[in-house]
Write a structure and sequence with these properties.
Layout (H helix, E strand, L loop, with lengths): L12 H12 L2 H13 L3 H29 L3 H9 L6 H33 L8 H12 L2 H20 L3 H28 L3 H9 L8 H14 L6 H6 L8 H29 L10 H11 L4 H35 L3 H21 L15 H28 L2 H9 L7 H24 L6
Bound molecules: 4-fluoro-L-phenylalanine.
Length: about 450
């Protein structure tokens, strides 16, 4: 594509920021961050997470954009154009294609739940019920295999329909409308949460660190989640970066995207925990947390059904702008490397991801006791494989490549262009060379028990 000079580029800088932020802001922020923070006991986990974002996540995001923009191809092609045709670095591109594909398969299951809640809210099923009944609705949904698969399939069809049309206009236009709305709604929820009797307890839970609660598993989750929430290690940011032109300022773009993503995760936590405490629910409720608490909050508010409807709609759109970026990775691979037409690549890969996701959909019901892999259900196994291992490992390889193997001068010019920021390159390089690899290695080795118990 790049050779023929026809590669599509983002229509505007804002379009890129919103598309990349759309990829970053997703279930990770609104669903997963609050629930893993709850499981790991709050404050101390949040601090470690923020450190992982600043010291490891953002530098790697810059590296991914840089690799994609330089290569002007999908992740496999971009590594090939940087490191040479037969280079083993292409494997990193392959790993990214595989990771984004597997991730999409189970991401769509959870995203599908939000579609069901859109319908529940629209039909008034969440209104005027006692808290306990609302919270039980979640169990009823996930225990029905057909319902879960139906919503998962619908979500996949939406994802494929958008990717089919090309990322450009669809995503850019929709992101511009949806992201600010999502932010506004979260602020509203946050305001409501701060007025609830659980506000103090919720704030303390998020911000008063209790380091005795920091287990090795919590550290691994914090780092894994930094990759997950910034869409790193799965090729999405390499692919989106490949649609950038040479003049873009990658540092300021990455900073904006990272800050936006972090703010939205914080507000989601601050909107949810006070309500959880006020309602006497457990912060460690796990994957059902958002689905059980948010509808309870809304059911007590004036116009609660409308608010719940908007919330789950925006939740679904946030998930959609992320899932598109996952599918786009393997679609770009087939288009760029194998010259496939976009529609064929999209529908074939999308259907494949849907099929692969079915065991994950069954993990909450028919196969909830089927634990063939490491004593985990398919869903939990795939989640662990991707969030705890493949994304951090993919990010580690990107860091090692950009930190140690890319020729310094070429890389520096690519990063800085005409700009003068004498501190930027050395600092970035230092984080990529030492901090990011050390963090990933120590935590992964710790998890696999190399350091003993
Ligand atoms: N960042 C997304 C979220 O927080 O939901 C998930 C994600 C998207 C991860 C794309 C990886 C990826 F390549």
């Amino acid at each position: 594509m790049s050779a023929s000079g026809q590669r599509i580029h983002w229509a505007s800088r804002m379009g890129f920021i919103l598309a990349a932020a759309g990829s970053a802001v997703g279930l990770g922020n609104i669903w997963k961050f609050p629930y893993i923070t709850g499981v790991h006991g709050g404050g101390a986990f949040v601090l470690v997470y923020l450190a992982c974002i600043a010291l490891v996540g953002m530098p790697i995001m810059m590296a991914e954009f840089l690799i994609g923009r330089h290569g002007q191809r999908d992740p496999v092609g971009s590594f090939e154009s940087l490191a040479g045709k037969g280079s083993p670095w292409k494997l990193v591109g392959w790993g990214a294609v595989a990771a984004s594909f597997i991730l999409l398969s189970f991401y769509a299951v959870v995203a599908g739940w939000s579609l069901d809640y859109v319908v529940k809210a629209a039909t008034g099923a969440l209104a005027g019920r006692p808290a306990e009944e609302i919270s039980n609705l979640f169990g009823q949904l996930v225990s029905s295999p057909w319902q879960v698969i139906f919503w998962q399939a619908l979500f996949m069809v939406l994802t494929m329909a958008i990717v089919h049309g090309g990322v450009g206009k669809g995503i850019e236009r929709w992101s511009k409308i949806l992201m600010p709305l999502l932010f506004l709604l979260l602020l509203l929820l946050f305001g409501r949460a701060m007025l609830s009797p659980g506000a103090k307890e919720g704030l303390a839970f998020m911000f008063a660190p209790d380091f005795s609660k920091l287990t090795p598993a919590a550290l691994l989750d914090a780092l894994g989640h930094a990759f997950f929430t910034l869409s790193l290690g799965a090729g999405s940011m390499i692919t989106y970066g490949s649609y950038l032109d040479a003049r873009s300022d990658l540092f300021s773009l990455s900073l904006r995207i990272t800050v936006l993503d972090t703010l939205i995760a914080m507000f989601a936590g601050l909107a949810i925990f006070p309500i959880v405490f006020a309602a006497g629910l457990e912060p460690s409720a796990g994957p059902g947390l958002v689905f059980q608490t948010i509808p309870i909050v809304f059911s007590e508010l004036p116009f609660g059904s409308v608010l719940a409807l908007l919330f789950f709609l925006l939740f679904a759109f946030a998930a959609l702008s992320s899932s598109i970026s996952m599918l786009e990775v393997s679609v770009a691979y087939l288009i760029d490397e194998k010259n496939w037409p976009r529609p064929r690549a999209t529908w074939l890969l999308g259907s494949g991801a849907l099929l692969l996701g079915i065991p994950s959909a069954l993990s909450f019901n028919r196969w909830s006791e089927v634990k063939p892999l490491f004593g985990k259900t398919f869903f939990d196994f795939f989640d662990m494989l991707i969030s705890s291992y493949m994304l951090p490992l993919g990010g580690l390889c990107v860091a090692v490549y950009a930190g140690w193997f890319w020729k310094g001068e070429e890389e520096k010019t690519e990063l800085l262009g005409e700009r003068k920021r004498p501190w930027l390159f050395p600092l970035w390089h230092f984080l990529l060379r030492y901090v990011a690899p050390a963090a990933v290695l120590i935590i992964i080795l710790n998890q696999t028990g190399v350091f003993g118990a």
